[in-house]
Amino acid sequence: MSSMNKIEFTDKYFMKQAFTEAYKARDKDEVPVGAVIVCNNQIIARAHNLSETLKDVTAHAEMLAITAASEYLGGKYLNDCTLYVTLEPCTMCAGALNWSQIGRIVYASKDEKRGYSLYSPSILHPKTKTDYGIMADESKDLLIDFFKSKR
After folding, report:
1. Residue 101 φ/ψ, nearest 5 degrees
2. Whether residue 21 lies in the annotated active site
3. Which residue out of 30, 62, 71, 88 is catalytically annotated?
4. Which single residue of 1, 34, 43, 66 has CA 20 to 30 Å from 74?
């Protein structure tokens, strides 16, 4: 296989996969947030917000991805996994991520209204690493456009 066909598994590559999920949420008239969980450069879970569809306030992309990843791995701990999500997790999702002991969280943009860092900055597991800012502008634009269409 030539090097031209080789996929580079970068944070941006996986964040684009999370955006694919966010667009699915938008197309279902859900708040456009998407998530993927990666283990050893393999996506083991994909999810997007389904709170409206399922009439369930806990059906956030992160919560659904945690459940799918745990089922895939056959265990509740995600120590060797990375969550890529298009928006900073809320405190509910951050609490669940703490319990899962996820190894790393990468989110596109901060949630200035409901992000965990506003209310519970130390809620994540002590060993969890975080990064943000990858595709932040795309995340903000997607959310702004979605909520403009609601007014």
Report:
1. 55, 40
2. no
3. 62
4. 34
- Whole-model pTM: value is 0.94
pLDDT tens per residue, range 9-68? 999 999 999 999 999 999 999 999 999 999 999 999 999 999 999 999 999 999 999 999
Cα-Cα-Cα-Cα torsion 58, 23, 104, 65, nearest 10 degrees, comes to 40
Interior/surface letters 33-54, b for 16+ CB within 10 angstroms, e for the rest = bbbbbbbeeebbbbbbbbbeee
First to last CA, the chain: 50
Nearest to 84, CA basis, from 22, 141, 29, 27? 22
Task: For residue 15, give both structure tokens.
Answer: 């964040």
pLDDT, tens digit, 9 for 90 and up, residues 102-116? 999 999 999 999 999
Q: SS3 helix, strand, coil % of the chain, rounded to 5?
A: 45, 20, 35
